[in-house]
Amino acid sequence: MKYRHRAAALAATAVVLAGAGPAAAASSSPAPSPTPSVSIPDGLYGTTDPTYDGVWRQSLALLAQESVGVTPADEAVAWLAGQQCANGAFAAFRAEAGAGKPCDTKLMVDTNSTAAATQALTALGGHDAEVRKAVTWLKSVQNADGGWGYAPGGASDANSTSVVTGALAQGGVTVPNLRKDGKSPYDALHALALPCDGKDGGAFAYQPGKKGELAANADATAAAVLGLLSEPLTGSRQDDSASPAACTAFDASKEPEKGAANGAGWLAEAMAKDGHLTSALPGAEDQPDYGNTADAIVALSSSGLNDQAEAPLRWLEANFAQWAKDSGPAAYAQLVFVANAARGADARDFGGQDLVELLNATGPAPKAVEKKDRSTASAEKAEKAEKKDDDGLNAAYTIGGGLLVGAAIGFVLMVRGRKRRQS
After folding, report:
1. Per-residue b/e over 113-144, b at no fewer than 16 CB within 10 Å?
2. Whether pLDDT at 423 is above 60
């Protein structure tokens, strides 16, 4: 996922606080502020204004580092933990922070920052108290339809519901059993699924339109796939599925994985032509959508559609550099998630660049970096090499064994011949 949670949602903070409605989904990140309106705190990743995405980008950076064997700097982890309010919630950023201190009542806390921070602190370990408080707060603001909006009390949307679901699952909550008025998070996502017998069947909408209509949204679909699988933002590589399953109706409470398969199939089809997703903004030419393409690859790989993720992965490897450089630590973290989830990818050699080094350079120097590459791609390469060696040894043994047997047979025949001649 990219900055949609920080951008559009917080751009509409005043509207949300006034009770006019939920924030709208964003299709791209905001332009970085050339001169931050606040000073960049020690320990924070990135150099742009953290007002709208400080906790989000920090959480993703720490999640990505942990996934590749990097031990983050103490001040980086302390900064994130110190952003938590006394009630367990997180805001996108608070300048006057302090672990366990109450937040200003005027400060807007949100589900997305809280969920991302929960995932990061859970993965890092050693923050059980903070995680428990965050989980308790997230559960307390669940909507009657089973989902979550960006702001507490806001209408549920696919992105917020999914990132919260991943956080709760990581925090030890049995998601299907978490119900409000009889509805689970899966029910909320199910309500945003486009029916299989209509246009864009299998995709997910961010939220219903004014008349209740559902419009396919690639960003929301990639998020919903992970949400229905109770996966964190990192996703996880799964064994190959032969091909996308046909879109089928599903019972959200009993078979959420079918809804995830529907969404993954739609994403595969959406990227089949160009090898990537495209951003269509009003008044602007269509542009490749790097962030959502990265999210979609993670969703496909987490659904076992590794063949369908292959072309988008190669496109992203060839084209990510400028986008990631401009976007900062959260973008590099997204790419690390891709490298970890996608078959044949390597965070240490992604399009010829070392994503781990690039990410580490955006923040305080890590405490430790594993020298051994933990990426699955490297493991696969080693496994293939080992298999090749084994095959070679087996062939050698076979040939050698054949030669020995042949020699033995020849010796027997020679002895028999001698005996016949002697007789």
Report:
1. bbbbbbbbbbbbeebeebbebbbebbeebbbe
2. no
